[in-house]
Amino acid sequence: MLKHIFRALLPLLALTLCATSLRAQEVSWTGSVEHLDGTEYELRFEAAIPSGFHMYDMGPYELGGPNATTFSLTPGAGAELLGGVEQRSEPHRYHDPMFGMEIGTFSGKALFTQRVRLTADRAEVRAAIEWMICDDKSCMPPSDTELTLVVEAAAAQAVTPSAGTDTPAAQAESATAGKTADVADAADAAIGSAPVAQAKDAAGSGSLWSLIIEAILWGFAALLTPCVFPMVPMTVSFFMKSAGKPALGRFRAGMYGFFIVALYTLPIAAIILITRLVGGDTVTADIFNWLATHWLPNLIFFAVFMLFAASFFGAFEITMPSWMVNKTDAKADSKGLAGIFFMALTLVLVSFSCTGPIVGSVLIKSTAGEFWSPIVTMLAFSLAFALPFTLFAFFPSMLKKLPKSGGWLNSVKVVLGFIEVALGFKFLSVADQTYHWGLLDREVYLAIWIVVFAMLGFYLLGKLRFAHDDEVQHVGVGRLALAIAVFSFVVYLIPGMWGAPLKALSGYLPPLTTQDFVLGQTTVSGEAASATTALRTVDGKAPKYSDVLHLPHGLEGFFDLEEAEAYAARVGKPLFIDFTGHGCVNCREMEARVWSDPRVLELLRNDYVICALYSDDKMVLPESEWVTTESGKVLRSLGKINAHYALKTFGVNAQPYYVLQGRDGRMLVEPRGYDLDVEAFVDFLRSGIEAYGAENAESR
């Protein structure tokens, strides 16, 4: 049986090795021949550029510029070149402050062509190609390769290995003529810095650590659920029966914990690796973005959370199929590692009804952050969940110190049910914000939370009872302390009904701009309307989408980059680009805890032109504003177009991300992601103003 276990894990190891080998790939060149007309043919050279890197176009560039991609073609007898090599892919062009000139780069794929005339039945054309790629921190040394393309009058196409190359790698080249290099060594071999493109997550390390801490707390909390807690005696009984040498016992206990972690973590890791291998980073990011913002998965998640909450309240019981649990439980009696594996599998299956919604909460939250966050947070949850069971397996005598099962376990389950109801409305809120339904404005959301947590407080005091609860004869110190904490939280929420910012919960609540009444102001909507009428574009119109999109704290700004750039050029101010999203928890937290600082507000209001680009807005734009990507995909919604621009220009697929831009699209300082350090954000804004002033002084 051990053989079967490792055989099951083998594909996952193979996927990991495959992903590692893909990362080591540099640029792969493929050559082909297409017949055009009569004796004319087209040689096609296609470059596959690794994710996170960009390759410079053909230029040409003056001395001091980047290394352009160059082709040197040598036609054999019977072939005649017509014109020069043309770059058929459209490069991304921008003014690079490091080189002081406009440059062009390719990402993903790049296609180059050369027309030839065939004057014989068969001819060869030898192509020597040189290029250079960079990522967001460094550049690889210039690389080169050779391809030999065979052109035949019968329209046969072939690509043969280059001949006469001195290096062993060149002698081994085949049709793809790929050159490989370890990307991990790129920093050591760096000869420069990449100008703009950045392949990094904007969520920030603070966000990931908060997710890890939350996952660990949920992992420990899951132990107290009635589906999990009764498994502790079974664990101890199993390891006491199989007692042997101390060293063997410790090994078996360690493997038990390892199998629990693996059963929770490896499935999500496999899903991510498969989607990444099949579709690349962009496809995987699109999948997570769809899960996080589309109405269908959000409504499904909302319904699932309500379903689990009803189960926790005692309406019905959600369990895994009995045949599955019984089968795995029966195999747990076998000897060796196989028995330990099935013991861990039994624990995971039996505990599903209580850990399922917790795992769902952890995973769904993490998809909005860094690419690897789902794996890291699932690992953190499973480690915390497995730790108590591993300790009990190490020291079975610890069981005597645990409290006995009883009604208190059902109370834990009910408390989790109330929390599930509150968290479930977050998914409904995301769908409501991205599609502008207007169903769950901030005051409605707060009213639901106030009622839910008030009822939780009354439950803790014994004023509410559910089907499987024991009668509360008296309130213990623990329940009283929890009730005080819950009612204190309710009191904290109540001022939010009149516009209190509630900074600690800003990431979970709808934005303040959705609230109809704010004490001391006419209305937030009226404030947003005044911003719309006060700020006008260059041609005197109200900013695009300002009827449905608003900035926080009464700030005025734009939601279309072209309009914002034109206005910034007219008024002579730098541009503050905010890549944000309706479902972005970190964005709301930044706005509530950093943007609200008087110094930040003053700088944004007086010294910058603000442009907020929502990456998850589902508003469908007129056909004239649609964008067609390099792969031919047509982007129709505002969010997809903004997300494509962020990924293509800055390599960013998460929010928030802040860019300070000067004249001609030049980046003033290094962009900034999620970071709650107010002083650092103030310095960031001031450094942008200084860089903009220096830029203007140079232009004079």
Helix-strand layout with pairing:
Elements: H1 2-23, E1 25-37, E2 40-48, E3 54-56, E4 70-75, E5 79-87, E6 92-96, E7 101-106, E8 109-118, E9 122-131, E10 133-134, E11 143-152, E12 157-160, H2 168-171, E13 179-180, H3 205-222, H4 231-241, H5 246-293, H6 295-312, H7 322-331, H8 336-350, H9 352-366, H10 373-394, H11 407-435, H12 442-460, H13 477-493, H14 524-534, H15 561-571, E14 575-580, H16 585-595, H17 598-607, E15 609-614, E16 627-628, E17 634-635, H18 638-650, E18 657-661, H19 678-699
Parallel strand pairs: 14-15
Antiparallel strand pairs: 1-2, 1-13, 2-8, 3-7, 3-10, 4-9, 5-8, 6-7, 9-11, 11-12, 14-18, 16-17
Write a structural description.
- This protein is of the alpha+beta class and 700 residues long.
- The protein folds into 3 domains: 25-185, Thiol:disulfide interchange protein DsbD, N-terminal domain (Immunoglobulin-like), CATH 2.60.40.1250; 205-404, no CATH class; 512-699, Glutaredoxin, CATH 3.40.30.10.
- The protein is built from 19 helices and 18 strands.
- The protein has a 5-stranded antiparallel sheet. A 4-stranded antiparallel sheet has the order 6-7-3-10, with no helix packed on it.
- Residues 1-25, 155-206, 366-370 and 522-533 have low confidence and may be disordered.
